[in-house]
């Protein structure tokens, strides 16, 4: 296991980048704490895999350094970094049995066969392939091969870090849940530093101690699932985390008042003068539909998703979402919406602004 330090790290795929927009990964400084589980979360093309490949040594950064426990490994080959990486699509040796595929990383490092057999059996049990150990990998399906890749990544206990690049893409939904559970157990039992790339917020939030949200090549927030939900540091975090995501509404903010199309909304904190694009953000969970209280809203439709209802509505010409309880009554005369002031965030140019009491 290792503490991983990213020092002034950035990368461009262009030979002579001239501006920040030319960088696929914009400047990043961060310490990945030894033994924690991280998820890199963001939409396709945001820089997640670029960052992971720099950490693994498959890609050399355009600038900056990467350190493992204080040792500069920026130019060290992957083999010298003592990491295990599992890719989006399965990488297995087709001519080998499942057993030999799982055993390969251990045998390659000279471990004795008694230990190899015990560890392979343990991992095979974790990935549900005990009854396939003597089958050739060639005849297996894509999801079974990916389970072998996952198992081979997990079979060594002495790695500095385990890196996963969207490893559950080809796995069926039920097995995804089981393997995520097994990965969490592995982390709990052995304390490996784990970095897990995904665009699926459920995977990220259920797997990681800390979620690293990326947008347009930049890390916009690192935090616990609760922190990402309660106080999104960037409007993209609010939009991307949650289902539905945070409502982001253009507004004018003056002190502890927000004005939406001239209509006043009281805020829990006060704010100084704000420049540029100003918006408020409120999660659907903190909006309430009523007959008498709040600002005018027009309900378009109500979706019952079992645990709760999602109300799709129009608010001063903008689409917003409101979440109501499964047993809440929604009537045609409910045309007002109010927001929990303690959970209304203010943003300037997409970044969270801290208010004062």
UniProtKB/TrEMBL annotation:
<dbReference type="InterPro" id="IPR027417">
    <property type="entry name" value="P-loop_NTPase"/>
</dbReference>
<dbReference type="InterPro" id="IPR047641">
    <property type="entry name" value="ABC_transpr_MalK/UgpC-like"/>
</dbReference>
<dbReference type="Pfam" id="PF17912">
    <property type="entry name" value="OB_MalK"/>
</dbReference>
<keyword id="KW-0067">ATP-binding</keyword>
<dbReference type="GO" id="GO:0055052">
    <property type="term" value="C:ATP-binding cassette (ABC) transporter complex, substrate-binding subunit-containing"/>
</dbReference>
<dbReference type="InterPro" id="IPR012340">
    <property type="entry name" value="NA-bd_OB-fold"/>
</dbReference>
<dbReference type="GO" id="GO:0005524">
    <property type="term" value="F:ATP binding"/>
</dbReference>
<dbReference type="Pfam" id="PF00005">
    <property type="entry name" value="ABC_tran"/>
</dbReference>
<comment type="similarity">
    <text>Belongs to the ABC transporter superfamily.</text>
</comment>
<keyword id="KW-0547">Nucleotide-binding</keyword>
<keyword id="KW-0472">Membrane</keyword>
<dbReference type="InterPro" id="IPR003593">
    <property type="entry name" value="AAA+_ATPase"/>
</dbReference>
<protein>
    <submittedName>
        <fullName>Trehalose import ATP-binding protein SugC</fullName>
        <ecNumber>3.6.3.-</ecNumber>
    </submittedName>
</protein>
<dbReference type="InterPro" id="IPR003439">
    <property type="entry name" value="ABC_transporter-like_ATP-bd"/>
</dbReference>
<dbReference type="GO" id="GO:0016887">
    <property type="term" value="F:ATP hydrolysis activity"/>
</dbReference>
<dbReference type="InterPro" id="IPR040582">
    <property type="entry name" value="OB_MalK-like"/>
</dbReference>
<dbReference type="InterPro" id="IPR008995">
    <property type="entry name" value="Mo/tungstate-bd_C_term_dom"/>
</dbReference>
<dbReference type="GO" id="GO:0015408">
    <property type="term" value="F:ABC-type ferric iron transporter activity"/>
</dbReference>
<keyword id="KW-1003">Cell membrane</keyword>
<keyword id="KW-0813">Transport</keyword>
<keyword id="KW-0378">Hydrolase</keyword>
<feature type="domain" description="ABC transporter">
    <location>
        <begin position="4"/>
        <end position="241"/>
    </location>
</feature>
<dbReference type="InterPro" id="IPR015853">
    <property type="entry name" value="ABC_transpr_FbpC"/>
</dbReference>
């Amino acid at each position: 296991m290792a503490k991983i330090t990213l020092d002034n790290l950035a990368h461009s795929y262009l030979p002579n980048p001239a501006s920040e927009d030319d960088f696929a990964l914009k400047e990043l400084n961060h310490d990945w704490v030894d033994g924690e589980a991280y998820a890199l979360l963001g939409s396709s093309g945001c820089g997640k895999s670029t960052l992971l490949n720099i950490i693994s040594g498959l890609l050399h950064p355009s600038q900056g350094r990467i350190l493992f426990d204080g040792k500069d490994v920026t130019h060290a080959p992957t083999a010298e970094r003592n990491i295990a990486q599992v890719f989006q699509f399965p990488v297995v040796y087709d001519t080998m049995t499942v057993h030999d595929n799982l055993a390969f990383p251990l045998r390659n490092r000279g471990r004795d066969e008694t230990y190899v057999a015990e560890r392979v059996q343990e991992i095979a049990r974790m990935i549900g392939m005990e009854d396939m150990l003597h089958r050739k990998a060639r005849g297996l399906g894509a999801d079974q091969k990916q389970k072998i890749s996952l198992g081979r990544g997990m079979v060594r206990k002495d790695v500095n870090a385990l890196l996963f690049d969207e490893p559950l893409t080809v796995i069926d939904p039920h097995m995804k849940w089981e393997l995520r559970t097994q990965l969490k157990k592995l982390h709990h039992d052995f304390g490996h530093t784990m970095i897990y790339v995904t665009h699926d917020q459920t995977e990220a939030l259920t797997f990681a101690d800390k979620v690293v949200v990326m947008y347009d090549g930049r890390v916009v927030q690192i935090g616990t699932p609760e922190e990402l939900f309660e106080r999104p540091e960037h409007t993209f975090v609010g939009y991307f985390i949650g289902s539905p995501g945070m409502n982001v509404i253009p507004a004018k903010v003056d002190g502890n008042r927000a004005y939406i199309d001239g209509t006043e909304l009281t805020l829990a904190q006060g704010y100084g003068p704000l420049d540029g694009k100003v918006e408020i953000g409120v999660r659907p969970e903190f909006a309430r539909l009523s007959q008498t209280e709040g600002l005018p809203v027009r309900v378009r439709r109500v979706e019952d998703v079992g645990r709760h209802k999602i109300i799709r509505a129009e608010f001063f010409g903008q689409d917003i979402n409101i979440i109501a309880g499964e047993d809440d009554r929604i009537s045609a005369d409910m045309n007002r919406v109010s927001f929990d002031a303690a959970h209304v965030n203010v943003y300037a140019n997409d970044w969270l602004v801290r208010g004062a009491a």
